[in-house]
UniProtKB/TrEMBL annotation:
Superkingdom in the source lineage: Eukaryota
UniProt keyword Ligase present: yes
Keyword annotations of the record: GTP-binding, Ligase, Magnesium, Metal-binding, Mitochondrion, Nucleotide-binding, Tricarboxylic acid cycle
GO CC terms in record: mitochondrion; succinate-CoA ligase complex
GO molecular function terms attached to this record: ATP binding; GTP binding; magnesium ion binding; succinate-CoA ligase (ADP-forming) activity; succinate-CoA ligase (GDP-forming) activity
Main location: mitochondrion
UniProt pathway annotation: Carbohydrate metabolism; tricarboxylic acid cycle; succinate from succinyl-CoA (ligase route): step 1/1
Co-factor binding details: Binds 1 Mg(2+) ion per subunit.
Enzyme Commission designation: 6.2.1.4
Annotated site, Important for substrate specificity, chain positions: 71
Protein name: Succinate--CoA ligase [GDP-forming] subunit beta, mitochondrial
Organism: Ooceraea biroi (Clonal raider ant)
Amino acid sequence: MLRVLSRSMRSTQLLRKTTEIVCVSSTRNLNLMEYQSKELLRDSGVSVQNFAIVDDLTKTGSALAKLHADEYVIKAQVLAGGRGKGWFDNGFKGGVHLTKDRNAVANYVKNMLGHRLITKQTSKDGILVQKIMIAESVEIARETYLCILMDRQHNGPVLIASPAGGMDIEAVAAERPEQIKTVPLDIYQGINDEIARDVCVFLGFSRPDVLERAIYELKNLWKLFVDIDALQIEINPLVETTDEQVVAVDAKIAFDDNAQFRQQDLFALEDVSEKDPREVDASRFNLNYIGMDGNIGCLVNGAGLAMATMDIIKLNGGSPANFLDVGGGVKEDQVFQAFRILSEDPKVKVILVNVFGGIVNCTTIAKGIVAASRNLGLKIPLVVRLEGTNVTEAKKVLADSGLPIVTANNLDEAARKAVNRRCESGRVTRKGASRRRDIARKESLLTKRIPSDPKCNLRCEQTP
């Protein structure tokens, strides 16, 4: 699960399909649970379903007493997608349930609260469910789609709207592009009455009273977007109910980590207990870490190169233990902290460093590797592949260190050596060996030599 890439990707792809907008999403964002996003919407005047939170089985009755509806939605609150099709460690299926039986709500809560939910986006161990949201179901007459997100080409926010909500919005853009409306917004003027009315009419809110409610909701949505320094607020669906109300049924909000200094109360809402402790630890040093189930620790600069590295490890019969991106402005201390985090993982049997020195100085990486190996008393086998800026000097630093560091000249060689070092027998698995003939071709897709000054030893990594 690469949450670091998922937050704004869907809406960004939609923009690419419907306009010439090219938007780059942030790689690290604050993640809030669904009920917290609904609280933000509600506090900003955006209408949401009535709901209550249960964090103790004894509180189910008091939570239900606050709700009055013909039907109830019961949702496990975890930071993972695919809840509806997930399953629990006790065998109970589904993290989202709908019932008209008020007495059945307590049983659903009992089977979910305090148990681990496994979905397509979690590890095999799942995530411990510590909160359940019970919400009043709404009678939906019509569903629409709204999204406000930051777009770099327009140097500001863009509003995306569609009368075809409650479904895969990318499919709508591909099959019925006329049902997608994009409106670049002036960051100072925002969504004024004219823009709000035009968009809401496009969404199909035709009755005068319902139209005015929709305009009110949209303007409040913009206010929230500005107030919390959001990168994206997506409402799918924004519904018109059978009793002519306008309600935001589901919301996804992405935040700008650069605004943390002025959004401290907001960032304090994040529940880090759900996260891998190593992920939390890494974020303190501005490192991107995602734990996985393999035993080859990876230290790479750049998300694309990190994913390519994991691919090559798999092709050689190995399995990555993590995704760890040190970024483009990495310092020696960050290299040390990255090694510390990797070495503290008992699953890691070998560490593979794969760094392309474009902005990054390879010498900085090499010095960080040597310092970390010595200061940590590193016992885990270490394979290093460096390329790019000051690579010759960097390789000399490694060679002169006297440490048992295995070096490699290309990505395939590095992955192969890491897999070999991981295996006690010193041989790669048969699965890896059977794929060996394909590796060179894969490597050629990932790396291209750039003709240049013969003194320049620069390589450009290209992830297909």
